[in-house]
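Question (not urgent): is this output format expected?
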Amino acid sequence: MQNKGEHFIPIGRDKLLECLPEFEKCSESDRSQLIELFDLLSSALHSQYHSEQINLQRLYQPLDPDSILVLKEDTNKDSSEVFRQVDKILQNANYQKLPTGELKTAVENATALGLRMKVDFSLFEELHVYGRGDETETWTKKSWWKFFKEEKFDVKVFQRLIIAFRLKDHDDLPKGQSSSFVYLKSFKGIPHSDLHTLLPGTQVKMTLLDRGKIIIPALSGIVMSIVKIVRLMVAVAIFATLANFIKFWVIPAGIIYYIIKGFLSYKKTQDKYQLNLTRNLYFQNLDNNSGVLLRILNEAELQDYRELVIAYYVLWRFGKAGMRAKQIDDIAEHQLFETINQKIDFEVDDALEKLESIKLIYKEKGLWFPLNIDESMKELNNALSK
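Got this back:
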C-alpha cells in the first residue's frame, strides 16, 4: 500500500467513474452529459500537452544523445530550460524530487542485491532524481552462512524512478558518453538502496570476503612455489648452472604467475558482480532519453485528467451552495480509499486552480462553485476552437 503523502492516482479511465461518489445515483441524462464533458476535458488537456510536447522536443533535440537529425550549427545547447521543463512535467505526474543526500547515503550501504558500489559524483554537471510510488516489497535471498536457507526481507522501492543528468568534461568520463548531452532514464521497481547503481561511472566494490578469496590463495601459492623451488635447488645443487638459472629466473617467474592469476581472479569476481547487477536491472529499464519525455508527458496528462474529473465532479455533485477546498479534498480521498483501498493525498488545490484557469469553476468568499454542465461544455468547446 502507498504511504500517505503519495499524490499519484493509480487508476485507468475505465476505473475512474467508480471513484466518483454517488455517480450511479445521477440521472441517466446527467451521467451521459458528464461523460461527454469529461471527453471534452480530455481533448482540451491533450491539446495542451501536445503543444508542450512540440516545445519540449524542440528544446531537447540538440541535447538528445540518440538524435539522428541534422541541426543548425548555431543550435542552442543550453540545458537549463530542459531541466526546468522536465521538473515541471514530473511534478504534474506526481513524482517527488529526491535530495542528493539520499543518493550519497545509498552509496555507503550495500544494495538490496548485496552489492557495494562507489560513485564519482564529480562526473556530473547536473544530476536530478525523481521517484514515485514509495512502497515496501518482500524479497527473498539465500546466504551461505545460513546453509542457503531461503529467508524473506522487506525492501523499500520506488515503483517509478526518473534520472536526468548532464556530465562534465572529465578525465574519467564513461566510454561512449559525452558532456554535450542531457541523459534521461526511466526505471521501475528500484530499491531505495540501489538508486546509485543506475548512474554512469558506478563501479562495484567487492566485499572483504571476496578479496580474501583472491589474495589468500595467491599469497599461499607464492609461498608454496618458493618452498618447492628451494627444494628443487637443493636436489640439483651439483648442477651449478641449473641452480643459478632457477635462482634468478624460476622464482621471479613463479611470483609473476601467481600475481597474474590473482589479477585474473579479481577481474572474474568483479565481472560476476557486474553481471549480477546488469541481470537485475535489465528488465527494470523502461525508457531512455526522448522516449522518457513522451512517457512522462503522457503520465502528467493522465494524472491531470484524473484530478480534474474528480474535483469537478465532487464540486458539481455536492457544491451547488459552494464548498471549501478541504471538503472537496476529504470527499475525494475517502472515495479513492473506498474504491482502490489506497491512501491518496489528493492534490485539491492544484486541481481547483487548473479548473478555474479553464473557467469550469469559480471562487467567491472562500467558497468554490461549479458551472453547470452545459456552461462547462461551452467553455471547453471555446477553448478547443481557439
